Amino acid sequence: MLELHGLSVTYGKHRALDGVSLYTKPGEIVVILGANGAGKSTVLKSIAGICEGRVTGAMSMNGEGLLGLPPHKVVERGVALVPEGRGVFADLSVRENLMLGANPERAREDAQANYDRLIGLFPKLAERAGQTVRTMSGGEQQMVAIGRAMMSNPTILMLDEPSLGLSPLLSRELFQNLKAVREAGLGILLVEQNARLSLGIADRGYLLENGEILREERADVLRSDPAVQAAYLGGG
Ligand code: ATP
Protein backbone atom coordinates (compact mmCIF):
# COMPACT_ATOMS: atom_id res chain seq x y z
CA MET A 1 0.00 0.00 0.00
CA LEU A 2 1.15 3.52 -0.90
CA GLU A 3 0.46 5.99 1.92
CA LEU A 4 0.92 9.74 2.35
CA HIS A 5 0.51 11.49 5.71
CA GLY A 6 0.57 15.25 6.02
CA LEU A 7 2.48 15.84 2.80
CA SER A 8 3.34 19.52 2.35
CA VAL A 9 5.26 21.08 -0.52
CA THR A 10 6.51 24.62 -0.97
CA TYR A 11 8.03 26.14 -4.09
CA GLY A 12 9.96 29.10 -2.69
CA LYS A 13 7.31 30.97 -0.67
CA HIS A 14 4.39 29.35 -2.46
CA ARG A 15 2.75 26.48 -0.58
CA ALA A 16 1.50 24.05 -3.24
CA LEU A 17 0.42 21.22 -0.89
CA ASP A 18 -0.73 21.56 2.70
CA GLY A 19 -1.00 18.38 4.76
CA VAL A 20 -2.17 15.94 2.09
CA SER A 21 -2.99 12.42 3.30
CA LEU A 22 -4.10 9.64 0.98
CA TYR A 23 -3.54 6.00 0.17
CA THR A 24 -3.73 3.57 -2.76
CA LYS A 25 -3.97 -0.20 -2.39
CA PRO A 26 -3.01 -2.82 -4.98
CA GLY A 27 -6.02 -3.71 -7.10
CA GLU A 28 -7.74 -0.33 -6.86
CA ILE A 29 -7.90 2.75 -9.04
CA VAL A 30 -7.77 6.03 -7.15
CA VAL A 31 -8.25 9.38 -8.86
CA ILE A 32 -7.22 12.83 -7.65
CA LEU A 33 -9.53 15.53 -9.02
CA GLY A 34 -8.85 19.23 -8.81
CA ALA A 35 -8.75 22.47 -10.75
CA ASN A 36 -5.68 23.71 -12.61
CA GLY A 37 -2.96 24.53 -10.10
CA ALA A 38 -4.62 22.60 -7.24
CA GLY A 39 -1.42 20.62 -6.75
CA LYS A 40 -2.26 17.30 -8.45
CA SER A 41 1.01 16.91 -10.36
CA THR A 42 2.93 17.99 -7.28
CA VAL A 43 1.48 15.01 -5.37
CA LEU A 44 2.70 12.53 -7.99
CA LYS A 45 6.07 14.24 -8.46
CA SER A 46 6.69 14.27 -4.70
CA ILE A 47 6.01 10.54 -4.46
CA ALA A 48 8.23 9.84 -7.47
CA GLY A 49 11.13 11.83 -6.01
CA ILE A 50 11.19 14.39 -8.81
CA CYS A 51 9.54 17.38 -7.13
CA GLU A 52 11.54 20.59 -7.36
CA GLY A 53 9.91 22.04 -4.25
CA ARG A 54 10.60 21.45 -0.54
CA VAL A 55 8.74 18.29 0.46
CA THR A 56 7.85 17.44 4.08
CA GLY A 57 5.56 14.90 5.72
CA ALA A 58 5.48 11.12 5.55
CA MET A 59 5.27 8.93 2.45
CA SER A 60 5.63 5.17 2.50
CA MET A 61 5.26 2.11 0.34
CA ASN A 62 4.39 -1.04 2.30
CA GLY A 63 5.61 0.72 5.43
CA GLU A 64 8.99 1.73 4.02
CA GLY A 65 9.66 5.48 3.81
CA LEU A 66 9.87 7.17 0.42
CA LEU A 67 10.61 10.75 1.47
CA GLY A 68 13.97 11.94 0.20
CA LEU A 69 14.64 8.90 -1.99
CA PRO A 70 16.02 9.49 -5.49
CA PRO A 71 13.62 8.53 -8.31
CA HIS A 72 15.24 5.18 -9.12
CA LYS A 73 14.92 4.06 -5.48
CA VAL A 74 11.20 4.89 -5.53
CA VAL A 75 10.86 2.67 -8.59
CA GLU A 76 12.73 -0.08 -6.74
CA ARG A 77 10.08 0.13 -3.98
CA GLY A 78 7.42 -0.62 -6.58
CA VAL A 79 6.03 2.82 -7.44
CA ALA A 80 6.27 3.89 -11.10
CA LEU A 81 5.20 7.20 -12.67
CA VAL A 82 3.97 7.78 -16.21
CA PRO A 83 4.69 11.52 -16.43
CA GLU A 84 2.52 14.12 -18.14
CA GLY A 85 3.59 14.34 -21.78
CA ARG A 86 4.55 10.65 -21.83
CA GLY A 87 8.36 10.84 -21.87
CA VAL A 88 8.89 8.05 -24.41
CA PHE A 89 12.01 7.80 -26.58
CA ALA A 90 10.61 8.76 -29.96
CA ASP A 91 13.50 7.44 -32.04
CA LEU A 92 13.50 4.00 -30.44
CA SER A 93 11.18 1.13 -31.22
CA VAL A 94 8.31 0.02 -29.01
CA ARG A 95 10.27 -3.00 -27.81
CA GLU A 96 13.36 -0.89 -27.05
CA ASN A 97 11.25 1.56 -25.04
CA LEU A 98 9.67 -1.27 -23.09
CA MET A 99 12.99 -2.94 -22.39
CA LEU A 100 14.42 0.34 -21.03
CA GLY A 101 11.65 0.16 -18.46
CA ALA A 102 13.07 -3.13 -17.19
CA ASN A 103 16.27 -1.50 -15.94
CA PRO A 104 15.42 -1.41 -12.20
CA GLU A 105 16.87 -4.30 -10.21
CA ARG A 106 13.41 -5.48 -9.15
CA ALA A 107 12.53 -5.97 -12.84
CA ARG A 108 15.75 -7.11 -14.50
CA GLU A 109 15.59 -10.79 -13.70
CA ASP A 110 11.99 -11.15 -14.83
CA ALA A 111 12.19 -8.82 -17.82
CA GLN A 112 11.11 -11.42 -20.35
CA ALA A 113 8.27 -12.66 -18.13
CA ASN A 114 7.13 -9.07 -17.55
CA TYR A 115 7.29 -8.40 -21.26
CA ASP A 116 5.21 -11.49 -22.01
CA ARG A 117 2.66 -10.49 -19.36
CA LEU A 118 2.49 -6.96 -20.74
CA ILE A 119 1.87 -7.97 -24.33
CA GLY A 120 -0.69 -10.49 -23.07
CA LEU A 121 -2.46 -7.50 -21.53
CA PHE A 122 -1.91 -5.13 -24.48
CA PRO A 123 -1.56 -7.26 -27.64
CA LYS A 124 -1.36 -4.09 -29.73
CA LEU A 125 2.08 -3.38 -28.29
CA ALA A 126 3.29 -6.74 -29.55
CA GLU A 127 1.92 -6.10 -33.03
CA ARG A 128 3.88 -2.83 -33.08
CA ALA A 129 7.03 -4.09 -31.32
CA GLY A 130 9.38 -3.05 -34.14
CA GLN A 131 7.74 0.30 -34.91
CA THR A 132 9.55 3.57 -34.19
CA VAL A 133 7.55 5.37 -31.53
CA ARG A 134 7.71 8.70 -33.36
CA THR A 135 5.47 7.27 -36.09
CA MET A 136 2.71 6.19 -33.69
CA SER A 137 -0.52 7.97 -32.77
CA GLY A 138 -0.83 9.85 -29.48
CA GLY A 139 -2.88 7.06 -27.94
CA GLU A 140 -0.41 4.40 -29.00
CA GLN A 141 2.48 6.42 -27.60
CA GLN A 142 0.62 6.74 -24.33
CA MET A 143 0.27 2.95 -24.21
CA VAL A 144 4.03 2.61 -24.80
CA ALA A 145 4.68 5.00 -21.89
CA ILE A 146 2.37 2.97 -19.63
CA GLY A 147 3.94 -0.26 -20.86
CA ARG A 148 7.40 1.05 -20.11
CA ALA A 149 6.41 1.96 -16.56
CA MET A 150 4.85 -1.47 -16.13
CA MET A 151 8.09 -3.13 -17.21
CA SER A 152 9.60 -1.89 -13.94
CA ASN A 153 7.33 -4.47 -12.27
CA PRO A 154 5.49 -1.91 -10.13
CA THR A 155 2.92 -2.52 -7.41
CA ILE A 156 1.46 0.97 -7.87
CA LEU A 157 1.31 2.79 -11.18
CA MET A 158 0.89 6.59 -11.11
CA LEU A 159 -0.38 8.44 -14.19
CA ASP A 160 -0.37 12.20 -14.72
CA GLU A 161 -3.09 13.34 -17.15
CA PRO A 162 -2.88 10.29 -19.41
CA SER A 163 -5.75 11.41 -21.67
CA LEU A 164 -4.20 14.82 -22.40
CA GLY A 165 -4.22 15.42 -26.15
CA LEU A 166 -6.10 12.22 -26.95
CA SER A 167 -9.38 12.06 -28.86
CA PRO A 168 -12.48 10.97 -26.87
CA LEU A 169 -12.33 7.57 -28.58
CA LEU A 170 -8.66 6.98 -27.76
CA SER A 171 -9.22 8.23 -24.21
CA ARG A 172 -11.98 5.66 -23.68
CA GLU A 173 -9.74 2.93 -25.06
CA LEU A 174 -6.92 4.02 -22.77
CA PHE A 175 -9.18 3.92 -19.73
CA GLN A 176 -10.37 0.43 -20.64
CA ASN A 177 -6.71 -0.56 -20.69
CA LEU A 178 -6.26 0.90 -17.21
CA LYS A 179 -9.03 -1.40 -16.00
CA ALA A 180 -7.01 -4.31 -17.39
CA VAL A 181 -3.98 -3.07 -15.46
CA ARG A 182 -6.04 -3.11 -12.24
CA GLU A 183 -7.27 -6.60 -13.04
CA ALA A 184 -3.63 -7.67 -13.29
CA GLY A 185 -3.44 -6.76 -9.58
CA LEU A 186 -1.72 -3.36 -9.72
CA GLY A 187 -2.91 -0.26 -7.92
CA ILE A 188 -3.36 2.94 -9.93
CA LEU A 189 -3.09 6.51 -8.68
CA LEU A 190 -4.42 8.78 -11.37
CA VAL A 191 -4.46 12.53 -11.93
CA GLU A 192 -6.91 13.40 -14.67
CA GLN A 193 -8.77 16.41 -16.05
CA ASN A 194 -11.42 14.18 -17.56
CA ALA A 195 -13.44 13.58 -14.40
CA ARG A 196 -16.21 11.73 -16.21
CA LEU A 197 -13.91 9.09 -17.65
CA SER A 198 -11.73 8.75 -14.58
CA LEU A 199 -14.62 8.48 -12.11
CA GLY A 200 -16.11 5.93 -14.52
CA ILE A 201 -13.27 3.48 -13.88
CA ALA A 202 -12.04 4.54 -10.42
CA ASP A 203 -12.86 2.87 -7.12
CA ARG A 204 -12.22 5.95 -4.99
CA GLY A 205 -11.48 9.61 -5.50
CA TYR A 206 -9.99 12.56 -3.65
CA LEU A 207 -10.92 16.18 -4.26
CA LEU A 208 -7.89 18.45 -4.04
CA GLU A 209 -8.36 22.20 -3.75
CA ASN A 210 -5.60 24.76 -3.16
CA GLY A 211 -3.25 22.04 -2.01
CA GLU A 212 -5.64 20.46 0.51
CA ILE A 213 -7.78 17.33 0.36
CA LEU A 214 -11.41 18.45 0.67
CA ARG A 215 -13.07 15.05 0.40
CA GLU A 216 -12.37 11.36 0.01
CA GLU A 217 -15.21 9.22 -1.32
CA ARG A 218 -16.14 6.19 -3.36
CA ALA A 219 -16.03 7.07 -7.06
CA ASP A 220 -19.72 6.26 -7.67
CA VAL A 221 -20.71 8.55 -4.79
CA LEU A 222 -18.63 11.39 -6.25
CA ARG A 223 -20.08 10.80 -9.70
CA SER A 224 -23.65 11.20 -8.54
CA ASP A 225 -22.97 14.16 -6.25
CA PRO A 226 -24.47 17.39 -7.68
CA ALA A 227 -21.67 19.55 -6.23
CA VAL A 228 -19.03 17.36 -7.87
CA GLN A 229 -20.99 17.35 -11.10
CA ALA A 230 -21.13 21.14 -11.11
CA ALA A 231 -17.42 21.53 -10.32
CA TYR A 232 -15.83 18.73 -12.34
CA LEU A 233 -18.36 17.16 -14.67
CA GLY A 234 -19.59 20.22 -16.50
CA GLY A 235 -22.91 20.20 -14.67
CA GLY A 236 -24.07 16.83 -15.99
P1 ATP B 1 -2.59 21.40 -13.68
O1 ATP B 1 -3.87 20.65 -13.71
O2 ATP B 1 -2.74 22.80 -14.25
O3 ATP B 1 -1.40 20.64 -14.21
P2 ATP B 1 -1.89 20.75 -10.94
O4 ATP B 1 -3.06 20.56 -10.04
O5 ATP B 1 -1.19 19.55 -11.42
O6 ATP B 1 -2.29 21.71 -12.13
P3 ATP B 1 0.68 21.56 -9.94
O7 ATP B 1 1.40 21.45 -11.25
O8 ATP B 1 0.94 20.53 -8.92
O9 ATP B 1 -0.88 21.69 -10.16
O10 ATP B 1 1.04 22.99 -9.34
C1 ATP B 1 0.56 23.43 -8.07
C2 ATP B 1 1.05 24.86 -7.81
O11 ATP B 1 2.47 24.85 -7.67
C3 ATP B 1 0.77 25.83 -8.94
O12 ATP B 1 0.45 27.08 -8.37
C4 ATP B 1 2.07 25.90 -9.71
O13 ATP B 1 2.23 27.14 -10.33
C5 ATP B 1 3.09 25.69 -8.62
N1 ATP B 1 4.30 25.01 -9.13
C6 ATP B 1 4.35 23.77 -9.68
N2 ATP B 1 5.62 23.44 -10.02
C7 ATP B 1 6.39 24.50 -9.67
C8 ATP B 1 7.80 24.79 -9.76
N3 ATP B 1 8.66 23.90 -10.27
N4 ATP B 1 8.21 25.98 -9.30
C9 ATP B 1 7.35 26.90 -8.79
N5 ATP B 1 6.02 26.68 -8.67
C10 ATP B 1 5.54 25.52 -9.11
UniProtKB/TrEMBL annotation:
<dbReference type="GO" id="GO:0005524">
    <property type="term" value="F:ATP binding"/>
</dbReference>
<keyword id="KW-0067">ATP-binding</keyword>
<keyword id="KW-0547">Nucleotide-binding</keyword>
<comment type="similarity">
    <text>Belongs to the ABC transporter superfamily.</text>
</comment>
<feature type="domain" description="ABC transporter">
    <location>
        <begin position="2"/>
        <end position="235"/>
    </location>
</feature>
<keyword id="KW-0029">Amino-acid transport</keyword>
<protein>
    <submittedName>
        <fullName>ABC transporter ATP-binding protein</fullName>
    </submittedName>
</protein>
<keyword id="KW-0813">Transport</keyword>
